[in-house]
Amino acid sequence: MEIKIGSKEMLTFLHIMAWVIFIGICIEAGGLIFNTFFALVINPISAKNFWMQIDLSNLINYDKGYFLVVTAIMSIVALMKALMFYLIVKLFYNKVFDFNRPFNSTLNQLISNLAYLSFGIGLFSIWGLKYSAWLRLKGIIIPSVDDLHMGGADVWLFMSVILFVIAQIFKRGIEIQIENDLTV
């Protein structure tokens, strides 16, 4: 017995997954922002068990400014990821998928926005990587870039290039679709 999964079922599954990821990343971004504020303003000892048990106590003890920069980069990366999934969830919510006219400006705009966001995540991740390396050169003990959730900058940049190419293909598809509509 063969089970076929149609495009409607796959889109429903992807919609649910987008919501789950969006909620998870929002929790991460909120946790990072809250813990940064808590460690800087209320209790610096909390940096020992920062978000997801990351130990940033050496960093905050060395310099609160460095701590703020690292946590700000972490927060920006998390917020940009959350924004990406918000746009995807919004796409499913607004139901702009029209299989009869697959090339439309809404979908092209979404792909372009995702490309810009992934490029930004890549740039901030590189900045976080370089900044962490610089802090290590100063002798500050800091968790790995992967533990700080700023790894994979090359993957994000690669994804942005792919999305930019797809956006240009969609743009050309829209032009062809409009030309075909005018000739009919």
How would you describe this structure to a colleague?
Helix 4 (105-137) runs antiparallel to helix 5. The protein is elongated, with a radius of gyration of 21 Å. The mean pLDDT is 89. It has helices spanning 7-42, 57-62, 64-94, 105-137, 153-183. It has 5 helices and no strands. The protein starts with 6 loop residues before the first helix and ends with a helix. With 184 residues, it is an all-alpha fold. The longest helix has 36 residues, at 7-42.
Looking at this protein, list some descriptive labels.
5 helices, 74% helix, mainly alpha, 184 residues, single chain
The general outline is elongated
- Mean pLDDT equals 89
Low-confidence stretches: none
Helical amount = over 70%
Major sheet size, sense and barrel closure: none
Query: How many runs of DSSP E, i.e. beta strands?
Result: 0
* Number of separate helices: 5
Cα Rg: 21 Å
Q: What amount of the residues lies in strands?
A: under 5%
Q: What's this, in brief?
A:
The chain is mainly alpha-helical. Helices cover 74% and strands 0% of the residues. The relative contact order is 0.11.
Topology (SSEs and partners):
Elements: H1 7-42, H2 57-62, H3 64-94, H4 105-137, H5 153-183
